[in-house]
Amino acid sequence: MENSTILFLLLASSALPAVIIFLLPQRCVFLRNSINLLGVISKIFFVIYLIRGLINNEVFYYSFAFTPQISFVLKVDHLSLLFATLSSILWLFTTIYAIGYFQNAQNQSRFFGFFSLCVTATVGLSIAGNLFTFFIFYEFLTLTTFVLILHTQTIEAKKATVLYLFYTIIGGLFFLVGLVALQTLSGDMEFVSGGYLGDLEALSPFALQLIFILLFIGVGVKAAIFPLHSWLPSAMAAPAPVSALLHAVAVVKAGAFGIIRIVYDVYGVEFTYSLGLLWIVLGVAVITIIYGSIMALRQNDIKKRLAYSTVSQVSYILLGVSLFGPLGTIGGMIHLVHQGVMKITLFFCAGAFAKIYEIKNIEQMNGLGKLMPIGAFAFTVGAFGMIGIPLTAGFLSKWYIGMGAYENGLVSILGVLALSSLLNAAYFLPMLYRIWFLTPSQELKPQSQFQNGNALLLLPPLFTALLTFYLGIFALNEYSALQWVNILVQMEYLP
Fold first, then answer.
1. What is the CA radius of gyration of the chain?
2. DSSP string covering 178-229, please?
3. What confidence score (pLDDT) does residue 452 get?
4. How far apart are CA 168 and CA 146, in angstroms?
5. How far is 220 from 443, CA to CA, in rounded Å?
């Protein structure tokens, strides 16, 4: 076991606060918030430590064998730290935001306890060293998030929770069947850059294709691919911090991350391509991108429009993965980060609009630029990023995916990107027009507890909006997501 202690500290930095928070009475607001923030800061410190260690070629690894065929493995590589860094930083912003959002609310210990466990599951699957360990944390994520969706305990929230559990349990069963079948054929293998199945002889191509489809469906449920997406818009019955968590930090990103792991570190992108499986990923991605954008156009509820936007946008990650070549891979992987930052900005703003002015529908957004200039600015930046306006992170993702399509002669994919961007503009620009150019209704009055504004609701989206610009403008900085992804791509494609 090499440097294994830090891996358990990384997990404990959110798991231990969760246990303590569960035990705290409702009145211990300051102590609960302090424990939350201490856990967040500790996790970011451990992630930075791991990044520095990996740069210096240190190995972080733990393995425990249950049977000759089943091992629990934790290890750190460049891909795991990409996802762990994203989750940890966005957890910081979401924690600050949630403290402001749930001010004077009931059941805060339950919420923040499960919230911390959810982050534990997310970071756990990021450092999982094999499919079995990934599956353990993947299912743990389901168990921790359904309580958050149910938090308000309204009829709508209960229906959304049932639908979420139905989809994720079915997806988990598909994943389990695929996992057992793969373990039977290949034995207990760990994730490795370039994959390991292509190096094994005498494996039936048909069996491997079938197993891939089972695994793809299993993780595709959480990635909200069409037609396995219905749980996501329904889950918008949850409070805004939960919506932000589902879309940007945890569930949806876990599904997309799982697809990346399977393609690149189990099958290997070249072997996946030789089996004809990338065409399946490509087809599903294209359909989901267009479908999600069209459905977003039809929504009047702000959060549901953003939810269908997520359905569309997350499949850009799949699209990049399916484009066999380094440029497409770069586009898909950086969109894992970029979409998370942009979408959490939008959900933060939507939650602030609802919490301060009780604005939930698009026709109520008139004049928000005058009423909430900081929130309106942040929402505008997030929307511009989703459309793919230059200087934003979203533009960079689409640029690389488009170059990857051109590199492979898939000109039709450029048309898909163009159509999707037009649809993005069609459902975001009318919202921005209302925010900046129409007069606010005289009936709009801030809720009493927000008469003087609330920095905890407005500063997190402001910072993530600025981060959207930073990721787009300073992409060549040595500490940017793009440079980290470039290292990943070199490991995958260069001998």
1. 21
2. HHHHHHHHH-S-B--TT-SGGG-SS--HHHHHHHHHHHHHHHHTTTT-TTS-
3. 46
4. 10
5. 43
Tell me the CA end-to-end span of the chain in Å, nearest whole number.
Answer: 28
Residues 204 and 208: their CA atoms lie apart, in Å, by: 6
User: Closest by alpha carbon to 197, among 261, 137, 139, 135?
Assistant: 261
Measure Cα distances from 94 to 40, 42, 349, 372, 482 in Å: 10, 15, 12, 20, 23
- Give 174's strand partners: none
Cβ neighbours of 271 (radius 10 Å): 20
What whole-number distance in Å separates Cα of residue 371 and Cα of residue 441? 10
Residue 402 · residue 395 · CB < 8 Å: no
Q: Give 25's Cβ-side CA count (13 Å radius).
A: 1
Distance between CA atoms of residues 8 and 76, nearest Å: 12
119: closest CA among 245, 262, 252, 255?
245
Instruction: Tell me if 263 sits within 8 A of 321, measured CB to CB.
Output: yes
Residues 387/422, Cβ–Cβ less than 8 Å: no
Q: Cis check for the bond before 390: say yes or no (omega within 30 of 0).
A: no
The pair of structure tokens assigned to 114 is 């499960």
- Tell me the β-bridge partners of 70: 67
B/e letters for 279-314, b = 16+ CB within 10 Å, e = fewer, are ebbbebbbebbbbbbbbbeebeebbbbbbbbbbbbb
pLDDT of residue 432: 95
Structure tokens, 352: 């602030």
Per DSSP, the three-state class of 359 is coil
DSSP assignment, residue 440? P
pLDDT of residue 345: 95
Tell me which residue of 260, 265, 266, 262 sits closest to 330, measured CA to CA.
260
Contacts of 2 (CB under 8 A, 6+ apart): 59, 60, 61
Tokens for 205, please give them: 């191509």
DSSP class of residue 247 equals: I
List, run by run, the mean pLDDT of 10-residue segments along the chain (495 residues).
86 94 87 91 94 89 87 92 92 91 84 92 94 95 91 88 93 95 86 84 85 95 91 87 82 92 91 91 95 94 93 93 88 92 94 89 91 93 94 93 89 92 95 91 66 75 94 85 84 65
* DSSP 8-state secondary structure symbol assigned to residue 495: -
The model carries a pTM of 0.92
Our CA angle for 254, 116, 357, nearest 5°, is 90
Tokens describing residue 157:
């929230």
User: Chain centroid to CA 87: how far?
Assistant: 8
Encoded amino acid at 412, one letter:
S
